[in-house]
Amino acid sequence: MRLTPGPAYDVDLDRVDLFDLDLYTSGDPHPVWDVMRAKAPVHHQVLPDGREFWSVTRHEDVCRVLGDHREFTSERGTVPTHLGTDDAAAGVLLTSTDPPRHTEVRRPLGSKLTARAVRSWEDSIRRTIVRFLEPALDGEVFDLAERALLLPALVTGPLLGIPEKDWAELVQLTAMVTAPCDPHFLVGHEAATLAIAHHELVTYVREWVRARRTSGTEDDSLLHHLMSVRAGGTELTDEEIALDGYSILLGANVTTPHTVSGTVQALIERPEQFARAQADPSLVPNLVEEGLRWTSAACNFMRYAVDDVEIGGDVIPARAAVVAWIGSANRDESLFADPHTFDITRPNAKRHVAFGFGPHFCIGAPLARLTLRIFFEELFQRFDSLELAGDPQHLRSYFIAGMTHLPIVAKKRQTP
Questions:
Q1: Minimal CA–CA distance to 323: which of 127, 9, 104, 51?
Q2: Residue 413 needs a FRET pair 20 to 30 A away by CA distance; which of 141, 169, 267, 403 works?
Q3: By the 8 A CB rule, do 301 and 324 touch?
Q4: Residues contacting 113, CB < 8 A, separation 6+
Q5: How much is the mean pLDDT over the chain?
Q6: Of 258, 288, 264, which Cα lies nearest the Cα of 409?
Q7: Which tens digits make up the pLDDT trace of 323-367?
């Protein structure tokens, strides 16, 4: 998805198609969202196959939809790739579960992922980032977007308890779930790609659990910790663990690579911002927040209205699918001044909703923030400048905003 909008253009709200994959692959959705926020903050669309959904695009409304599970449930599915078919794992899968069960499963996992808990992994993550950047030091073309797809696995694989030999396969499978129409990940057709990836990921976790139970192996990994979680006073079944483990693998792998690539692209296009952050490392944490806002890698989340609900003078009917557009909320001019400007000193950048909002706020946010901070600290320490070595290639997805290719050349920083 294009992150720096082009010129505004006429938008016919009656003909807007927010599920048009070309809009995100080669088009520009930001002018569309700009018009929607101003003129149709609640927008109804019917797809050619009869499926329909309502969209909210303002920051305030996005927070309301994601924040109130009593008005907007997660228990029929939360990603628009599943629109029209209720999630078969609703009420069990962590991402498709409302409180109180969601809280009962999430809380013990979250205790392992607090900002304080992940701080102990900083040295290990830094070593991983240094190794990741090493190939770019030779000045040859380095495809950041392609290589970054594996970066979360390099960081989280050991924390999850996943052996290195499986990282690449799991990254491929999670990409198939979130971008099933992209030619890099498509297997036959979209439905087949989703079915294969879902089956393989759930089977992987199920067999991982079975092997641990058989061997009696214990460790401090996140997946092993999931085996001890109790919901409603009862231990999770192996199938429930498999589904929740699937959820964790998706969350761990799918957004951070695109935040890295999109933020680096923004810095290449604005060398003065690169120079400013390099000269003042204290700006890096805010650069991370602005990068999260700017890229909005998780472009949207879906919920279903429980009853008829009024938003902004419009009524969304009971049981209707509601898509909350993160990419639009994070460019809402009522909250972010000059929202289409990438500004690493933006004072309220952290008010973005790139990690979601409410009960389903990303459980891995502290780890993602730590990883991104270390990445940019090491990037500025090692390179004097970056430049594009070819055209970016955007991910073919209306759910994940990202790139499959971002060829760059890095100029090694000269030590005094």
A1: 51
A2: 403
A3: yes
A4: 222, 363, 364, 366, 367
A5: 93
A6: 264
A7: 999 999 999 999 999 999 999 999 999 999 999 999 999 999 999
- Say if residues 363 and 110 touch (Cβ distance below 8 Å): yes
Q: How far apart are CA 352 and CA 357, in angstroms?
A: 9
Please indicate, yes or no, whether the overall pTM of this predicted structure exceeds 0.85.
yes
Q: Which two tokens stand for residue 204?
A: 């992987």
Q: Which residues pair with 210 in a beta bridge?
A: none
What does the domain layout of the chain look like in residue ranges? Answer: 21-412
CATH homologous superfamily of 21-412 equals: Cytochrome P450 (1.10.630.10)
Q: How far apart are CA 174 and CA 184, in angstroms?
A: 12
Distances (CA, A) of 34 to 16, 297, 332: 13, 18, 8
- State residue 216's pLDDT score: 81
Q: Would you state the structure tokens that stand for residue 352, as one six-digit string?
A: 């973005």
Q: Which residues contact 245 (CB under 8 A, 6 or more apart)?
A: 205, 208, 209, 223, 226
The Cα 331–Cα 322 span in angstroms is 19
Helices and strands (H and E) in the chain: how many: 17, 14
- Transcribe 62-78 into DSSP letters: HHHHHH-TTTEESTT-S
- Pair of tokens at residue 250: 């998706």
CB atoms inside a 10 Å sphere around CB 110: 16
Q: Which amino acid, one-letter code, is at 364?
A: G
C-alpha dihedral sign at 258, 143, 366, 236: positive
Task: Give dist(CA 315, CA 365) in Å, integer.
Answer: 33
